[in-house]
Amino acid sequence: MRFATKAIRVGQEPDSNTGAIITPIYQTVNFVFDEISRPHLFEYSRSGNPTRTALEHCLAGLEEARHGLAFSSGMAAVDAALSLLSAGDHVVASQNIYGGTFRAMEQVWKPRGVSITYVDPTDTGAFGRAIGDKTRMVWIETPANPLLQLVDVRAVAALTRPRGITLVDDNTFPSPYFQRPLTQGVDVVVHSTSKYISGHSDVIGGAVAVNDEKLYERIKFHQNAIGAIPGPMDCWLSLRGLKTLAVRMRQHEANAKAVAVFLSQHPKVVETIYPGLESHPQHELAKAQMDGFGGIVTFRVEGGNAQVAKLVKALKLFYFAESLGGVESLVCHPATMTHAVMTREEQEAVGITEGIVRLSVGIEDVEDLIEDLEQGLGKC
Ligand SMILES: Cc1ncc(COP(=O)(O)O)c(C=O)c1O
Description:
By secondary structure, the protein is an alpha/beta fold. It folds into two domains: 3-242, Aspartate Aminotransferase, domain 2 (3-Layer(aba) Sandwich), CATH 3.40.640.10; 245-377, Aspartate Aminotransferase, domain 1 (Alpha-Beta Complex), CATH 3.90.1150.10. The protein has helices at residues 3-9, 50-62, 74-82, 99-109, 124-130, 153-160, 175-178, 213-226, 232-243, 245-264, 283-289, 305-314, 344-349, 366-378, and strands at 33-35, 38-39, 67-71, 90-94, 115-119, 135-141, 166-170, 188-192, 206-210, 269-273, 296-301, 319-320, 330-332, 356-360. Strand 6 (135-141), helix 6 and strand 7 (166-170) form a beta-alpha-beta unit. Bound molecules: pyridoxal-5'-phosphate. Pyridoxal-5'-phosphate binds next to helix 3.
């Protein structure tokens, strides 16, 4: 089966009891046992629920993984992957990972005795230099938020694999439609399904995909032990979103490309960052390791944050909001929103400087989106 077929079919066979074609929402806490110590297929919905199983199977199919696990949020999925660590372990992480992941590393995992070295994601050699005897995990996000730098996934995997280091990749931005990291040497894929996977900005969720049985057992244990699971209704919404992932991603990308070209020619835009533009320093790498360039476009407005304030106020179709990956277009100011947990110095160090704006380009008519940007930039 190919991608779009899998998104509609995997894990979603007609219901064996009723013939329902759409996976039912099994809104139940518990299930009847057959006899002592023998549950039927499910026993208790924290441990497993048929609607969640359908979602987990579908996610695994799309990531070309043996196993998928669904969580109540992207951060719960991030936490489940980090739960593979113990006190004394060392992590090497890309320096511009999602702000919430950075916060979890700095404020939850460091106090528990985990040490972390942040490196420039575009410099594969820096990963190699940072890896030491105690390194147990390398954490990447590619393309990274908000500056869309890429990590050379196969090159980093060539460093981690021989040393038995777990390579984790947050694949939220490209979604499995544009990138399947497990096929490139990654061990654990993490998602915020609140973004493209669900796709309609109406459900918070997360996912993990793995091939290795031991990693699966450990993360599944954490899922059940801690209990950060999504409810059946949320799983159903995510499944419904997944069915259109392929067509949505194609349209997100087509619109993002057109928006990026428009911005790159605008006199008030100092810099446009989009991996699909030939001007992107890692355009060739993007072509080699991704099947497309995604729906996020970042740019720098002339005149810094004072002009950003005017722009976001003037835009009418691009809602000024956090998050990304929904059908509707959003504009975000990373320095004061998604990356507010970083100090000004930390932001500057990773390139989140004055005037940076991030667009999540939706699937509206692109002519409307460009007209909106044109009138908004006109107010700057
Ligand atoms: C790349 C990335 N990873 C993880 C998360 C966390 O996901 P959630 O908000 O679903 O907990 C986000 C949220 O914005 C994100 O952008």
